[in-house]
Amino acid sequence: MINFEYQRASDVAEAMRFITADPSAKFIAGGTNLIDLMKGDIERPSRLIDISRLPLKAIEATADGGLRIGALVPNSDLAYHPLITERYPLVASAILAGASAQLRNMASTGGNLLQRTRCPYFYDTATPCNKREPGSGCSAIEGLNRMHAILGASDACIATHPSDMCVALVALDAKVHARGPAGERVIAFSDFHRLPGDTPQHETNLHSDEILTAIELPAQGFAANHSYLKIRDRLSYAFALVSIAAALELDGNKITEARLALGGVAHKPWRDREAEASLRGQTADAAAFRRAADILLHGAKGYPHNTFKIDLARRGIIRTLTQAARGTPQVQSSKKIM
Ligand code: SF4
Hints:
single chain, 338 residues, alpha+beta, Uridine Diphospho-n-acetylenolpyruvylglucosamine Reductase, domain 2, Enolase-like, domain 1, five-stranded antiparallel β-sheet, 12 strands, globular, binds iron/sulfur cluster
């Protein structure tokens, strides 16, 4: 681990001043990913700006019936907050599918969005990796790529985004609030994370001198008909091979609104609006769910060790939409896929 300076910011304006004065500094909140990256010599910030005590820990109703979640709300507090469990249970379920209780206690909502891929080559400084060292090559394309992307990958990088919570947030049309030297801006969640293209080192559209201040959820929470299904190699403390967030509005058995997003399959939480559109107006049955899965996975491409993910995703989408339609969401503490 390198030597670094440490500074604690007492408000957002001070945090902005500190980062502007030292552009190679990094903000630290829970530190559950950044400290590992520093120990592994992958991140080498000159300075850590501690933002953990900034007043960004509130969960408040918004004027239009939605919810504003401060960027420093711990993942556990968010998952168990009554407004989340009652109105946005898809978010609670996705959070509880991720990491471990100890990590969820430390990790912040904002940090969850900014965590970096868990591609093993990214963490192994003895191997080429375009994300860690642009232009060096991608070890995963010809290497062990069981956990890697099947959608939206490039010749430069086939890594996946590791978050569960983000899959629920993109499905629900969340917005990200960020503050920078030019003031506050709001980014649609689906535009926040990037596909790798030729620049896999850039994972989000947040500027290095901006601070993430809040996540906003719209009023519609799909509390009655939703499910988050995570398929992984072991029940807990494992990243998704494939995860699926499904949310439906039903009029009887007819679908009036649909949301469908996948995790573990791409460099960003993968939402498919064409697949969602195919569900609207349809009867909520296996035929409609199969069609949506086919649309979403059209163009999916496997690598030598992960082609199985395409069929796994297809079956997972149908299962998760079925759970959502029945109003029997996947229980995260259950070993059994319902
Ligand atoms: Fe690096 Fe991306 Fe290739 Fe993994 S998949 S080795 S993160 S470039």
